[in-house]
Design goal:
By secondary structure, the chain is mostly helical. It is built from 13 helices and no strands. Helices cover 71% and strands 0% of the residues.
Length: 308
């Protein structure tokens, strides 16, 4: 019985480096191209509604966008010689969203830091996280009714304080969940390295973990601000609306205050064409403000990351 000679094997066939550098088989290349094309098509379909809304807002809102619109009060119907605008609604939106951010941002960040850094072994952690998750899914109109019962029913009047409270409740779960996720993305090695250098847990959290997660935290806060700026239902039950300039003094915060979202809601349902057109212009300004805030925050966080 004679042994058959071993098959000759090329030295390059079992070389892993050569396998990585060699082109993929035709079947796998076609599959990759097909899946990439499918991903682009699905992404385009997902962005199609957003693009259609933006195009319609630009088409309807740009013709009436003038400087006087941004700095004038709403004019009575039929008054053609009076400047017509919604400057009071822009100022009122800034005031109420700013007050809401003053409450929700520090509380939300502290809650997220506790959940992520200090409360992993606490029994109450899962309960807090469950409540925050449920709160994030509560409809905004329910939040408005809740704020109405807590603030408006107690003080017997609609006010900017009540509107800010409702917006803060809307913003809080978004800030907590986004900040916690951003903190979890910080590698554990950075915490261990900080502890090895002698920093205690609080110093490590504030100077290393929070600083590293700052771009993600900023993005979450901006998403919450954008959500609050566009909310209408909570303000219908709390801040209502006013045709006058808002009073930023403490006494003025306990009176009805105008906002962009309520103005758009009122003008869009108006039977007058002038107010319908003004609603489109207000929508364009509101979208522009949210977009400008997002761009500025990206530039600031990018500059901070580059300078570190």
């Amino acid at each position: 019985m004679t042994n058959s000679p071993p098959l000759s094997v090329s030295p390059l066939e079992n070389d892993p480096v050569n396998d990585l550098s060699s082109p993929l088989p035709m079947k796998r290349r076609l599959f990759s191209i097909g899946m990439t094309t499918l991903a682009f098509v699905l992404a385009a379909i997902a962005l199609l509604p957003l693009g259609a809304v933006l195009v319609e807002i630009l088409k309807q809102g740009l013709p009436n966008l003038r400087w006087e619109v941004l700095v004038s009060l709403p004019a009575p119907i039929g008054m053609e010689d009076v400047s017509n605008g919604f400057g009071n609604a822009i100022v009122g939106t800034f005031i109420m969203v700013g007050l809401a951010a003053l409450f929700s941002v520090p509380v939300g960040m502290l809650a997220a830091i506790f959940l992520s850094e200090f409360g992993q072994k606490a029994a109450v952690t899962e309960t807090i996280r469950f409540i925050v998750t449920v709160l994030s899914g509560v409809p905004s109109i329910v939040v408005g009714v809740f704020a109405y019962g807590v603030i408006v029913f107690t003080t017997k009047q609609f006010s900017a304080i009540a509107g800010s409270f409702a917006l803060a409740v809307v913003m809080l779960p978004i800030i907590v969940l986004s900040t916690e996720e951003a903190l979890k993305l910080v590698p554990t090695n950075q915490r261990l390295a900080s502890s090895a250098l002698g920093a205690n847990r609080l110093q490590t959290t504030l100077r290393v973990v929070v600083t590293s997660a700052l771009p993600g935290i900023t993005t979450g806060i901006l998403l919450a601000i954008a959500r609050a700026a566009g909310e209408t239902a909570p303000l219908l039950f709390t801040a209502l609306f006013s045709q006058n300039w808002p009073d930023p003094l403490p006494g003025g915060l306990f009176s009805p205050m105008p906002s962009m979202s309520v103005l758009i809601y009122n003008y869009a349902n108006s039977p007058f064409v002038e107010q319908n057109q003004m609603a489109w212009t207000a929508s364009l300004v509101l979208v522009g403000l949210v977009l400008l805030t997002s761009i500025l925050s990206r530039l600031v966080t990018r500059q901070r990351s580059t300078s570190r």
